[in-house]
Fold each of these.
Amino acid sequence: MSTAENPRKYLVTGGAGYVGGVVAQHLLEAGHRVTVLDDLSTGFREGVPAGAEFVEGRIQDAARWLDSSYDGVLHFAASSQVGESVAKPEKYWANNVGGTMALLTAMREAGVRTLVFSSTAATYGEPASSPITEDFPTSPTSPYGASKLAVDHMISGECTAHGLAAVSLRYFNVAGAYGAQGERHDPESHLIPLVLQVAQGRRDSIHVYGDDYPTPDGTCVRDYIHVADLAEAHLLAAAKAVPGEHLICNLGNGNGFSVREVIETVRKVTGHEVPETAAARRPGDPAVLVASADTARERLGWNPSRADLAGIVSDAWDFARRPKGE
């Protein structure tokens, strides 16, 4: 991994968002130069770390700023709400696929030949078993997942035809916080921040969608990965991408935690009551989704060190209690 003695210059698209902002911070801490490109449609200006140059704009216009001085691009700019993608698929094809096509063209014309792409486990759809490896069939169940899979196919073609060095990182459930950077989605759809909102009194209860799954406590099991571990994988990927190759890696802890385990952990960490409301299963919710991250370990040398659920929740709780604007 590059250090301050060997700084590089990166464009981080979507760097005002949750994951993009944390990755930008890690790049800066490693001594790199960072430009964040974000249209602030879902990101936040305060999410851009100090020390990064900020450009407000769309990835469709990346050619206006991207030039040969950049060593690579880390690409997070995307629409990412599964439910919205079902209601407005055209938005996801335009932003995620059309936007990335414009970015790839800008990179090719500028001679920028390294890309790390923020992909998703949604490309797999509803796998019949876990842990999930990269050779599992891809069968996305939403336009969001389909748009991300389409981008992966686009990147593969770019690598074969034009020598791009690219790594797609397929995330499972990203959680936690890194100092002043954490989840602030609006609307919020992720379990841990939703349960923390109940602990804060901002929400009356947490809905538990189904308690009769074939799991130890009857609730769905998911793989949670700390956002700082995720960020470290991106730096490794940027440093180890191989020209002409499109490497795809799952990112997860390889361990699953149930909905009830998350709720109970929040109770212990916060010391607050968290009332539950029973609800029917949601269509398409698999019982267990857990990643195999063996490829990331073997090819990138990645070793997540923050797998403890209580630690993940504690970092997210610290962020949730920060005064706005800090």
Amino acid sequence: MMQRVRLQGIAKNFAATTVLDRIDLDIEPGEFLVLLGPSGCGKSTLLNIVAGLEEPSGGTIHFGDRDVTALEPDQRDIAMVFQSYALYPTMSVRRNIGFALKMRGLSRPEIEAKVAGVAGLLQIGHLLDRKPAQLSGGQQQRVAIGRALVREPQVFLLDEPLSNLDAKLRADMRVELKRLHERGRRTTLYVTHDQVEAMTLASRIVVMDKGRVQQCDRPEVVYAKPANRFVAGFVGAPTMNFLEGELALADDQPALRLGDHILPLPGLKAGTGLRTGQPLVLGLRPEHLALAPAGEAGTCQGQVLMTEPTGPDTYVLIRLAGREVTARMPPGVALAAGQMVGLRLDGAAASLFDTGEGRRLN
């Protein structure tokens, strides 16, 4: 049965160090919620508290209507997949997957049926009689996931399960995890520092930093409308461009003043409470800088410093008003270092942040 998970005021302190600072989260039944953030932000600690592997210093945890805050892990009806596969090396894949069911006292035919079902789902049926040492990293991770799935838990917890895989296997396993979730719709809490995993897997992303939730929303909202400068800089690759200046007008249209330079921002909706001359930080994703004919209304001029072809895109480093910015261009764009180019900045897609705490202004 799918369960709602509710965290209220979860805190964790180690001596005088605050690791988690009053975390409130509601995870809907069947949701795939991803905790995303840099190392040391508290995301794995929060997952361990939900699992019952660590005690909170304050707050409560509910699975549905049940308060599980003081319960042991085996009383919470959870299954967890760790960064390390943690397989039993002397057991076959079949026995690794079925071990928890054996401990529950299920009959051999029941265990065999459940193991076969999970193995078929994960496409590892042909590996059931092998030992972990005979498997690749991707196959071992599938076994670890199968060992969790076979228990049919109320809540599925994953702690950076793909971080030990190479890039190709990570991409393949992301597809597998998404497919598995869409089939089973288990309430899932997933920890990662990889924004690609977060963007592709999550129903919602919780961006964390320094033990606090910075933003919790759908992936497309986190990307397009980051709540603050930290989120804007952490999510997205290449990172968002930041330009600190003053809100201005150019030909009665919104613009950014950078010293002696004025950068037109056609389409910008500055929001209420902002005034001309107000200091702020402009944030623009690389895809929101486009080439334009030099001298065209609503454009500015920059100098190409370097191009970086990646296959589907070409990233162009440009000096703009004395600052360096990155633009995402179509593949094969013909630009040379030192070349002057016209640029159109997409004001409609711009983010504005205050110069102090970095909170979003528009």
Amino acid sequence: MDVSAQVLSVNIGRPRPNPWKRGVGLTGIDKRPVVGPVAVSAPGVPGTGAVGLAGDRVFDVKNHGGDDQAVYAYAREDLDGWQDELGRELGNGSFGENLTTLGLDVNGALIGERWRIGPDVVLEVSCARVPCGTFQGWLERDGWIRRFTEAALPGAYLRVIEPGELRAGDAVEVVHRPSHDVTVARSFRAVTTEPELLPSLLAAEALPEEIKDLVRRRVGA
């Protein structure tokens, strides 16, 4: 583990109108860094808008929220790469992430990998983020879904294993790595551009059940 791995910022959403998705009046994608500790807990079943960080929520409850998408993390290093490509500043939280990390290979993390953040919180990598129309509209970039998918740098959703408080500057320690080789990036490529990888995903027990069911349907397992 790289001892320099840390949470660079903790970001909470500010509800705003969502003109990019029919039937969803508001969006919480506009996340901004906050100062001080933030309580983290498991939000429970999806459909309520609840997520892992106190003060945050989602409004597209059909596709977001719940235990398997409690917290979303994205690496500052990857944001910097996109910043160069897009030719615009991307502040922490620009991709709608709750945790902007530094010194941590988020997309190389294994499904089921566990991170201890600060003294209290333990999170488990559950799945990759899949881009949507709201994300493309938010960035005001035509073709963004396609470009984001091609890059296969989706960032990671995490579930809450041990609740507590976290804050900007907290160290991130990888305390468990499963024995399989299914990374966040690999799982994303499997369900988007490289279906030949789908059978390998079943080695990752910690994948959400709905993704495992999708894999079984597609490969006939």
Amino acid sequence: MTATLLNAALSLAASGVAVLPLRAGKGPFGNCRTCARNVCGGRPNMKTPGPCACTYPCHAWAAATTDPQTINSPQWATAWRTAAAVAYHPGGAGVTVVDLDNAAAIAWARATLPVTRTLATTRGEHWIYQGAMQSVNAVRLGVDIKSLMAYARWLGPGTGATAALPAVVRALAVKEPSTDRRAPRAPMAPTRGQSGACPHRTPAYLDRGLAMAVQRITDAGSAVHATVYRTFLAVLSTHGRCGCLTDTHVTRLFTAAQAKGETVRHCTDAWTNARTALGL
């Protein structure tokens, strides 16, 4: 498996597609100790070298490279030995991937988007368009856009001709401006007793859960939007109905998300969407 993945990565790199290894679970390899928590300064993009000169596949999508010496290096060999897949940087290759995660999303794409090159995934399909754009997760239920500053699994060449990136896909990344010019406030947490007595034995249970949630957001190396939403969803599914959460707890989560580059509005939207998904 290692040789197969390495050969695929080298072949892609030779064609000008920047690649990186993925671990089991489709996630990137974590930063090395020197780069942990981006203390090295990170690598901001693929075209302008950043302050980090690490030779390990650090910093998720920003580690993607077309350099065969790097891909074959001893530092990368450590990752290849346990890698489960090859990923690539769509934006760097000049393409956009519309990632459809379920049958409903595929049906929407077939009814809405121009026909283009497609690939089957574990749960759905990738629709590939020629042209790069901003990457955005969860533009609608089951639909992510992966292009600039993102990675996608390499699943093969796909079938069909690659169409030009249409305006309808670009429009998915555009949020409607708020009519309220004031900064959005964090949604109020549920009041105690919303659904009866709290089932948790001690306050330490909530404190430990909040600490783990904050750490999960802080450690996100990529797909920050999705990580924030899923973390909010997990917190609310455990503590959202009993009334444990207070504004102080919500602020801790929002602060962690904003430290990763999320805006207050993105945090508010993610929190609201998570509550809606759980029927809160």
